[in-house]
Amino acid sequence: MEAHIVCCHECDELSTIPRPLRPGRYKCPNCGHTLFRHRPGMIEKLYAMSVAALILFLVTNYFPFLSFEVFGNSTDANFTTAVQYLYEEQDYLLAVALLMTTVVIPFAQIFLLLLLLGPLYHGRVPYYAPEMMKVLEAITPWAMLDVFLVGVLVSIVKLVKMGTIIPGTSLWAFASLILILAYAQSIYDPHPIWEKIEEGQNEGRVKRYVERDA
Questions:
Q1: I need a labelling partner for 144 at 20 to 30 A (CA). Which of 1, 103, 155, 164 fits?
Q2: CB contact set of 130 (below 8 Å; sequence gap of 6+)
Q3: ∠ CA 126-129-134, rounded to 5°
Q4: DSSP secondary structure string for all residues of 109-129
Q5: pLDDT digits (tens, 9 = 90+) for 156-199
Q6: 76 - beta bridge partners?
């Protein structure tokens, strides 16, 4: 039976994990910290969630987000309306921060997941995979779409007393996007992805040695 060694991030204990892996949670025998969770089909599910998230993200930014009607006058708000208003009020730093955390970084996160998981899903390991994993780990905490959704809901509660709020297609797409990203985050575990990257790199080294010997 094949086995591999995993290092605990809490106590640095080296644990030997037998293969094939069984579904479930693997804990450190020394401190009880979770080493990783093995979920069969995780990469396939994440790839499907990333494709759906990209479609919903594009819909969110294309269609109207909300319509606010007061005394017969109607105003449409898009997903980036808040950024535009902050920029017009010369709150440039806040506008850039909002743009980065609600548009740029979430799009980059989804796009990088597709670039990484697509080749893995089709059985290939891209040469840029290690660097991409590091970038994903660095930018993921800065994607704050869920915080933006809370702000939108609070604004709706306050504005509904002043006029009529009509939810747009973008709002429903945005709510669905939050649910999909939350589910993807709940099943995401970098351990099997790093394993595939390591296996692909080792196979590449073996092929190079075989070619040199030949």
A1: 164
A2: 197
A3: 170
A4: HHHHHHHHHHHHHTT---TTH
A5: 777 667 666 677 788 888 889 989 988 888 888 887 788 778 77
A6: 67
Domain ranges of the chain: 1-38, 40-205
Query: What gap in Å lies between CA 122 and CA 128, rounded to an integer?
Result: 16
Q: Which DSSP category does 140 fall into? A: G
Structure tokens at 30: 């020394």
Q: How far apart are CA 119 and CA 200, in angstroms?
A: 11
Given CA atoms 25, 26, 31, 33 in this order, what sign does their dihedral have?
Answer: negative
Contact status, residue 31 vs residue 13, Cβ threshold 8 Å: yes
Give pLDDT tens digits for 44-77. 889 999 999 999 999 988 888 777 766 666 677 7
**Of 78, 84, 83, 136, the residue nearest 106 (C-alpha):** 136
Length of the chain: 214
The one-letter amino acid at 109 = Q
Question: Can you read off the two tokens belonging to residue 104?
Answer: 């740029």
